[in-house]
């Protein structure tokens, strides 16, 4: 496979827990490497030593939604300035397992936390000197593409049942994940050009074909 562009590419992967993101991110990384690109494979919350410490708190400790949102955005800021922005400046492909859409979906949709506060945090964290060379400080640094693995909460719960010990979010009821999915839908409606929605209820092979097709149609893989 050949990649047609040597611009930095920032791609995020989203979906409720168990939707099947992780299954395909590693395969995409391989496809981009085969195309001659350098890939930074990372995740949120996490991706730096500091952000991974914050991840452990967010995934395991009880806290109110504002505390949770502040910790997630603090982790994101550290991740952006020390990993994502430098990789984009080196024209790498950044594949990020979750990004800010997850905060709007989980904290905004799932927890019902104030969207205006999340928007303010998004502007602070992604707007200020996130990237040195290309973007102006007034532009929010957002993924070029967000791949949303769309799966019903019931199917996702079935896939996760017995697969691993559930963390704080995975232990939430189906109704929570219905609200999370609603949060993703709202983000897609607000910025449809950025999103590729994948029917994640298909077989692994069919999902992979759909994911690959999205990247081929953009000219990023062939
Ligand atoms: N298309 C599929 N059909 C059936 N099972 C699948 C499919 N894709 C993935 N799985 C299985 O579902 C489970 C969840 O997949 P995976 O870990 O990739 O999801 P995820 O979206 O990364 O979840 P999380 O965000 O919670 O880490 C795994 O056991 C995986 O093997
Ligand atoms: C980025 C982000 C994540 N979360 C939640 C979503 C998941 O339940 C976990 C991360 O686990 P994964 O196995 O790595 O997907 O964290 C969140 O609530 N808010 C966020 O912004």
From TrEMBL:
What InterPro entries is this protein classified in?
P-loop_NTPase, Thymidylate_kin-like_dom, Thymidylate_kinase
Write the record's keywords in alphabetical order, separated by commas.
ATP-binding, Kinase, Nucleotide biosynthesis, Nucleotide-binding, Transferase
Q: What's the EC number here? A: 2.7.4.9
For the Thymidylate kinase-like domain, which residue ranges apply? 13-210
Q: Which Pfam families match?
A: Thymidylate_kin
Record carries keyword ATP-binding: yes
Q: Which reaction does it catalyse?
A: dTMP + ATP = dTDP + ADP
**Which SUPFAM superfamilies does this UniProt record tie to the protein?**
P-loop containing nucleoside triphosphate hydrolases
Q: Which residues bind ATP?
A: 15-22
Q: Name one GO molecular function term.
A: dTMP kinase activity
On whether Kinase is a keyword of this UniProt record, the answer is yes
Query: Per the similarity annotation, which family is this?
Result: Belongs to the thymidylate kinase family.
This molecule's function is given as: Phosphorylation of dTMP to form dTDP in both de novo and salvage pathways of dTTP synthesis.
Protein name, entry field: Thymidylate kinase
Tell me what organism the protein belongs to: Polaromonas aquatica
Annotated gene: tmk
């Amino acid at each position: 496979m050949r990649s047609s562009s040597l611009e930095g590419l920032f791609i995020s992967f989203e979906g409720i827990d168990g939707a099947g993101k992780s299954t395909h991110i590693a395969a995409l990384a391989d496809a981009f490497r085969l195309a001659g690109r350098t890939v930074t494979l990372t995740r949120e919350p996490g991706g730096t030593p500091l952000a991974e410490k914050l991840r452990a708190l967010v995934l395991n400790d009880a806290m109110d939604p504002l505390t949770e949102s502040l910790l997630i955005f603090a982790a994101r800021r550290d991740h952006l300035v020390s990993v994502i922005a430098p990789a984009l400046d080196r024209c790498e492909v950044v594949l990020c397992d979750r990004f800010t859409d997850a905060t709007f979906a989980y904290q905004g949709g799932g927890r019902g936390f104030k969207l205006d506060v999340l928007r303010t945090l998004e502007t602070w964290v992604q707007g200020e000197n996130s990237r040195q060379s290309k973007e102006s400080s007034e532009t929010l640094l957002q993924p070029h593409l967000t791949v949303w693995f769309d799966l019903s909460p019931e199917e996702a719960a079935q896939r996760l049942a017995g697969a691993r010990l559930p963390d704080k979010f995975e232990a939430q009821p189906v109704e929570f994940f219905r609200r999370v999915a609603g949060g993703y839908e709202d983000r897609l409606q607000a910025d449809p050009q950025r999103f590729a929605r994948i029917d994640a209820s298909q077989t692994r092979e069919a999902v992979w074909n759909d994911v690959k097709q999205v990247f081929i149609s953009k000219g990023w893989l062939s």
